TrEMBL record:
Superkingdom in the source lineage: Eukaryota
Domain called AB hydrolase-1: residue spans: 81-343
Entry-linked InterPro entries: AB_hydrolase_1 (IPR000073), AB_hydrolase_fold (IPR029058)
Source species taxonomy: Eukaryota, Viridiplantae, Streptophyta, Embryophyta, Tracheophyta
Protein name as catalogued: AB hydrolase-1 domain-containing protein
One Pfam family from the record: Abhydrolase_6
Protein species of origin: Brassica carinata
Gene3D superfamilies linked to this entry: alpha/beta hydrolase (3.40.50.1820)
Residue ranges crossing the lipid bilayer per the database entry: 16-36
Keyword Membrane in annotation: yes
Keywords: Membrane, Transmembrane, Transmembrane helix
Claim: Transmembrane helix is one of the keywords in the record: yes
Length: 363
């Protein structure tokens, strides 16, 4: 009888332990799942969300795209340019409009529009963002602003993903394109493994892991860059330590007053801005830019790629290989320049005039 009571007690104890184990496992799983889920973006104009101050267009899927116009009046312009900003930036970060001299702007009749890429500034987030969707956003922006059948595009840094996509998906709408230190995807299939691996290993270890996670496990990217156990992406954490000497000198000259709008950039959240950039930029692309064909065989337009040879963010070796694979792209390499070389005196004029006339500015 005593033995039976002992067995029963043991059985009950085992059952309680099992139930506790199940409850504990469920709690851990729920906690892990919640940690992996990014918070929803704070939509502009929603209750408690950021205010809407910029003009916006409504896109095909109901999203809104905020934009800013520069240069000569749109209806008087001879040449119209769409500018695509880089990572951790917004429509206000357009050095190509701010630094363009009147000689070029007025002399060539230049109108320019910059816009907040999805999730940035006052543009609605797009959780389904791809390089192709960015190209279609740009085409729709051009149509709603009546920019005409053809327009120019300049993509800076992470804005290069949209520019490559425009060359792929809407080439018939382009009068010309300039890719300015565009971010490169290490997994584009045309890259030889040795060249890609060498460039990949030039990054700090934390950035190697950050882009690797973005490529192989995009669902983990939010957690990876928000946990406190180890360093995530330097871009996400705004770690300026990895910049080249020339870039640091430029930032020192600009000072804290250089971006009074900085709080607006990520006001909808980090995930649909810099983290989504990583997922899209380093993810699995539907096409390889190095397989694109010459858009302007009759030289009615041109495509230019500008790169500093001391860029600590975008390895020059990969850009040289891209230029080698695409001989119809005009490659311009700037000695001693880092990622922010468009802020060099006269550089904006040079890039814009070269794009619009195929003639470089003579200093």
């Amino acid at each position: 009888m005593a033995t039976g009571s002992t067995d029963s007690a043991t059985s009950r104890s085992s059952g309680v332990l099992y139930k506790l184990f199940v409850v504990f496992s469920v709690c851990i799983a729920a906690s892990t799942y919640q940690a992996l889920q990014p918070p929803p973006p704070k939509l502009c104009g929603s209750p408690g969300g950021p205010s809407i101050t910029a003009p916006r267009i409504k896109l095909r899927d109901g999203r809104h795209l905020a934009y800013k116009e520069h240069g000569v009046p749109r209806d008087e312009a001879a040449r119209k340019i769409v500018f695509v900003h880089g990572s951790d930036s917004c429509r206000h970060d357009n050095a190509f409009a701010a630094l363009l001299t009147p000689d070029i702007k007025d002399g060539l009749g230049v109108y320019m529009v910059s816009f907040d890429r999805p999730g940035y500034g006052e543009s609605d987030a797009d959780p389904n963002r791809t390089p192709k969707s960015l190209a279609l956003d740009i085409e729709e922006l051009a149509d709603q602003l009546s920019l005409g059948t053809k327009f120019y595009i300049i993509g800076y840094s992470m804005g290069g993903q949209a520019t490559w996509a425009c060359l792929k998906y809407i080439p018939h709408r382009l009068a010309g394109a300039a890719l300015v230190t565009p971010v490169v995807n290490y997994w584009w299939k045309s890259f030889p493994a040795d060249i890609s691996n060498e460039a990949y290993n030039l990054q700090p270890r934390n950035d190697q892991w950050a882009v690797r996670v973005a490529h192989y496990a995009p669902w983990l990217t939010h957690w990876w860059n928000s946990q406190k156990w180890f360093l995530g992406s330097s871009v996400v954490t705004r770690n300026l330590g990895l910049l080249s000497k020339s870039d640091k000198e430029i930032l020192f000259k600009i000072g804290a007053a250089g971006r009074p709008h900085e709080g607006e950039i990520r006001q909808q959240g980090t995930h649909e801005t810099v983290i989504r950039d990583m997922i899209v930029g380093f993810g699995k692309w539907e096409f390889d830019p190095m397989e694109l064909e010459n858009l302007f065989p009759n030289k009615e337009g041109s495509v230019h790629l500008w790169q500093g040879d001391d860029d600590a963010l975008v390895p020059v070796t990969l850009q040289r290989y891209v230029a080698k694979k695409l001989p119809w792209v005009h490659y311009h390499e700037i000695p001693g320049a880092g990622h922010m070389f468009p802020l060099f005196p006269g550089m904006v004029d040079n890039i814009v005039k070269t794009l619009l006339t195929n003639e470089e500015v003579k200093n």
